[in-house]
Amino acid sequence: MRALLVAVGLALTLGACNGQRAALPVYELSGQTMGTSFSIKLVTPGEEMPDKSLLQRDVTDVLERIDDRMSTWQPDSELSLFNSNPSTDWINVSAEFCAVIEAALDVSSFTSGLTCSSGSSL
Questions:
Q1: What is the pTM of this model?
Q2: CB pairs under 8 A, 24+ apart, for 4-11?
Q3: Do residues 49 and 27 touch, judged by C-beta distance below 8 A?
Q4: Burial zone of 3 (CB within 10 Å; 0-12 exposed, 13-18 middle, 19+ buried)
Q5: N or C: which end of the chain has fewer CB within 10 A?
Q6: Integer Rg of the chain from CA
């Protein structure tokens, strides 16, 4: 009987916890970027949520900055300008651009330069 009471108490406690999780507010942000869309769901238990419109603007600004730096479709993006530069001389690039190149070189080193083509995997 005691084990049954403990089990019922535990089930009620877990049920109450699940109810508390469901009661947390979920903030949703979405938009268009880089030829596709994004959707973000944010839950902040016990914390005050920042202004949703400011958060939406900040996310959009970050994604636009990434696109301005790394777009292969925009002819004036930092990546497009870098790729189309005929010179072998040093050129100035942003810290973000440098970080992406370094990460790509790390992946290349880790995979021994392997690439994916249709029908193959790493």
A1: 0.60
A2: none
A3: yes
A4: exposed
A5: N
A6: 24
